[in-house]
Design a protein that fits this description.
With about 280 residues, the chain is an alpha+beta fold. It has one domain. About 15% of the residues lie in helices and about 30% in strands. It has 6 helices and 13 strands. Strand 6 and strand 7 form a beta hairpin. It is globular and about 65 Å long. It starts with 6 loop residues before the first helix and ends in a 23-residue tail after the last strand.
Length: about 280
């Protein structure tokens, strides 16, 4: 097709932010910091390399995901512990906070509740920002490696991708069959993963994660949470997405009770206030 005469003018139109966030409820990071400063560890789980583990976090508690043996990324799913239909909504989180999340950003739940489910309150990879390729850490872009796309692109049956890992973990935790558990597995937060979009073609890319043993990210649970974390078979995702040969390492999940008295004025966020009448 010929390029129109006003192509440059059309491209030069200034962008408009879709969802200005100035009116969003602001997390009280000072209170969360006090709760974190005196927190007490109450539980620990290890997501094995190329597999997933589940964990529970009561509202008002803190959970930490740590790199413990080597550079490793993780695919995180979160649900309301008491209602699996309320789960992490990566698309709306991305629309509100951007392609990558960081300290002070929140993970939001699905419709119709659309409320904060977890707040990032500390991150040792805060320093990374965005690199020269447009890559950043902790994305809410990628969906998770899965056996269906693998079959479509390469053929075969690969079972230890993150989608299948999360499905097995949720099934084991809840007693649901694999067929019942799978529809509850959803688009993830890619913890520690370094990703972006190429400047020329706009394709989703990954590169070796900057995470190292000792790095961690802390979340404050705004509601009672059930979590599942897959230690991705891509390892640090610097070479292959799903692989039996990429170096892979476990990820540690710890749960902490807040310091006594620091959350006396805190309340779990209520479900979204929309009346659900939809104009009728």
């Amino acid at each position: 097709m010929p390029i129109p005469d006003d192509a440059a003018a059309r491209r030069a139109i200034q962008p408009v932010i879709c969802y200005p966030v100035e009116t969003l409820p602001k997390p009280d990071l000072a209170t969360y910091s006090r709760a974190r400063a005196g927190m007490t560890k109450i539980g620990e789980t290890l997501a094995p390399a190329r597999d997933a583990a589940t964990f529970e976090v009561p509202a008002g508690h803190i959970f930490r995901i740590s790199s413990v043996e080597g550079p490793q990324v993780g695919d995180l799913n979160l649900w309301n512990l008491n209602d699996l239909s309320e789960r992490f909504y990566s698309g709306k989180t991305r629309a509100l906070h951007g392609t990558h999340v960081d300290t002070g950003d929140r993970l939001w739940t699905s419709f119709p509740t659309l409320r904060p489910m977890a707040t990032i309150i500390h991150d040792t990879l805060d320093w990374y920002g965005f690199d020269e390729f447009g890559g950043g850490v902790h994305d809410v872009i990628g969906t998770r490696c899965d056996p269906y796309t693998g079959n479509l692109l390469q053929g075969g049956q690969y079972h230890y991708c993150c989608h299948s890992n999360l499905t097995r973990a949720l099934s084991d935790h809840t007693g649901l069959s694999l067929a019942e558990a799978e529809p509850h597995v959803h688009d993830v937060m890619n913890v520690f993963m370094c990703t972006g979009f190429t400047h020329d073609t706009g394709q989703y890319f990954m590169k070796a994660s900057p995470v190292r043993p000792g790095d961690y990210i802390d979340f404050f649970a705004e509601i009672d949470l059930l979590g599942a974390l897959s230690a991705c078979p891509g390892g640090d995702c610097g070479s292959e997405h799903s692989s039996d040969t990429a170096p892979c390492f476990p990820l540690k999940i710890e749960v902490f009770a807040p310091a006594a008295g620091t959350l006396d004025s805190w309340q779990s966020p209520p479900p979204n206030g929309y009346d659900r009448s939809h104009g009728r």
